Amino acid sequence: MRFKLRQMEVFRAVMLTGSMNGAAKLLFVSQPAVSRLIAHTEQSLGLQLFDRDKGKLTPTQEAHRLFEEVGPLFEEALRIDEFARDLAARPEGALTLCSSPSLALNFLPPVVAGYLERYPNVRVKFHTTLLADMAHELLGRKAELAVSVLPIDHPNLVVEPFATGEMVCILPEGHPLTAQADVGLAELAACRLVLYSRNIPFGRLVAAAFQRAGVDWNPSVDIVRAELACALVRAGAGVAIVDQFSVGGAGWPGVVVRPLRESIPLALSLVRSRFDTPSRHVQRFVRVLKEHVKAMAPG
User: Fold this and answer.
1) Which of 105, 123, 145 is nearest to 246 (CA)?
2) 169: part of which helix (H) or strand (E)?
3) What CATH architecture applies to the domain 5-84?
4) Number of CB atoms found within 10 A of residue 185's CB
5) Sorting pLDDT into bands at 50, 70 and 90, what band is 83?
6) Span 28-38, pLDDT tens digits
């Protein structure tokens, strides 16, 4: 192999920092050692990777193309290194989990906490992802399990609904509509609206509800995430419709939640790849999650 991993590491460092000196500091080696390795790499590959002018480095077109290939490979090498260290430090292994962003605000944190309480030697790798990217995350094995706020229709995914909910109205404290037990879409349409963009699933869901109710609406602010709606409502920018899970639990101080008179139902789903058998970690997490949902149920 002419382009060795150490050469990739040093080349990547030079590309990231823009200089031999910067790469040396990043890698905790001497600047002459970096310069020698880059020169050797160019010679062994038969490529000029950098134009040099009075000490200034300018990557060539070939360097840019090579960097596009090296980046993902090096990130994968780092992931494997981290995995190897995890095996030594955490013999139980890791659970890689993703969820819809709104579920990460209030709904899933206590579930993760409960899981870690029972299985303290497992490392949880948790990130959020949009519905449109969830299939890619699971089929690309970037996550073992996804928790989605809406069902996903994909032939290569196993989707298991496990809880239901509703979209709700959120209002700033002191708003006249907070005096009501519930709020209608027509009443909201008369206010300044902070709503999900119509090109995402939540936006289409809310738009369909307004259309069914025969209510004309015109949002003042388009958003794509529930926390943006909550922050804007708290600041007095308007009123909004979000899923109940994003404002459950402790909720948002300064934000009042009211049910919608016209129901907009939700179905939370567990999602995984059809090509993978659920690991022991996934099975345990699902068990803890379902216990949490059962404990939340009224009565």
Assistant:
1) 105
2) strand 157-172
3) Orthogonal Bundle (1.10)
4) 20
5) low
6) 889 999 899 99
**Structural tokens at position 94:** 């890791």
Residues 147, 124 contacting (CB under 8 angstroms): no
**Any idea what DSSP says for residue 183?**
B
Residue ranges of alpha helices (H) inside the chain are 5-17, 20-27, 31-45, 61-89, 109-118, 131-139, 185-189, 201-212, 226-234, 280-296
Answer whether 101's CB lies under 8 Å from 108's CB: no
Q: Are strands 265-273 and 157-172 parallel, antiparallel or unpaired?
A: antiparallel
CATH architecture for residues 165-266? 3-Layer(aba) Sandwich (3.40)
CA distance 287 to 289: 5
> pLDDT tens, 121-160?
888 999 999 888 999 999 988 899 999 998 888 989 999 9
- The DSSP letter of residue 278 is P
What global pTM score does this model have?
0.70
Distance (Å, rounded) from C-alpha 157 to C-alpha 154? 6
Burial grade of 89 (CB within 10 A; 0-12, 13-18, 19 or more): exposed
What Å distances lie between residue 134 and 108, 273, 299, CA to CA? Answer: 17, 10, 34
**Would you say the CATH fold of 165-266 matches that of 94-162+267-296?**
yes
Question: Do the strands 145-148 and 255-259 form a parallel or antiparallel pair, or are they unpaired?
Answer: unpaired
CATH 3.40.190.10 fits 94-162+267-296, yes or no: yes
Per the CB < 8 A criterion, the answer to whether 53 and 63 are in contact is: no
Q: What residue ranges do the domains of the chain occupy?
A: 5-84, 94-162+267-296, 165-266
Burial class (CB in 10 A: 0-12, 13-18, 19+), 100: buried
Q: How many CB atoms lie within 10 A of CB 193?
A: 20
Model confidence at 71, in pLDDT bands (50, 70, 90)? confident
Rounded CA separation 54/35 (Å): 14
CA dist., res. 138 & res. 273, Å (int): 6
